[in-house]
Amino acid sequence: MTQPSVTVDPDKAALLVVDMQPDFMPGGPLAAPEGDALVRPVSELMASGLFRHIVATQDWHPADHVSFASQQPGRKPFESIELYGQPQVLWPDHCVQGTPGAALHPDLDWRHATLILRKATDPGVDSYSAFRSNHGPDGSRPPTGLTGYLRDHGVTQVFLCGLARDYCVKWSAEDGAAEGFDCHFLWDLTRAVDPAADESVRADLSTAGVSLIESRQLTAKNG
Question: In degrees, to the nearest 5, what angle opens at C-alpha 5 toward C-alphas 172 and 13?
């Protein structure tokens, strides 16, 4: 069945490129299988001219970040603890500030990005979403400022791609929809840390009002 086209209005659309960093790709400590396969198609989409607004996020952890298993005595990566009343997955050390694995992937032309947003910079609070950090000590989820940036630029449509499908891209899409943006999740331009979670990711995104599409459905607005 032919999938319907999705029109990209360059005056109202933004491409959100999430955490395209070596540490999330094969060989990295928190790799999404086949994450490196996204480099070429995401690069081509960034250069396509479809988007005037391209926002890149960059995971940027202090070395002593609370989400690292190495900072929790007796704990191992991928175990879960309770942090500030919420479940917190403990991760291998990854995307540590200033390390090669935290750099934006060198094979993407970041000159196309109009904003680079660093997240997870607070050692005591994790941050998956581009829009809000995870819950902090006071129970709130502090905003990153992205909502205001997009609204100030007249953006109403957000198209999401990058890593990882089941965490940072998913949370960004859900939060973007909650902020009132028309969010489109480019499924073929994401990869998951845990591919077995794909069906639950699809269900959660649909419940949040996020549109799941493929990049081949994108078409430029005429006129």
Answer: 40
The model's pTM: 0.96
d(CA 186, CA 196): 18
Mean pLDDT across the stretch 90-95? 98
Question: For strand 80-83 and strand 157-163, is the pairing parallel, antiparallel, or unpaired?
Answer: unpaired
Which pLDDT score, from 0 to 100, does residue 2 have? 64
- Other Cβ atoms within 10 Å of 187 Cβ, number: 18
Give how far the C-alpha of residue 181 lies from the chain's centroid of Cα atoms, to the nearest Å: 15
- Domains in the chain (CATH in brackets) are 6-63+104-220 (3.40.50.850)
Per-residue pLDDT tens over the stretch 25-48: 999 999 999 999 999 999 999 999
Under the banding of pLDDT at 50, 70 and 90, the label for residue 1 is low
Q: What's the distance, CA 115 to chain centroid?
A: 14
The residue length of the chain stands at: 223
Give the residue numbers annotated as catalytic, written as ranges. Answer: 19, 119, 168
Q: Which helix (H) or strand (E) holds 178?
A: helix 168-178
Q: Which residue is listed with tokens 């997009």?
A: 150
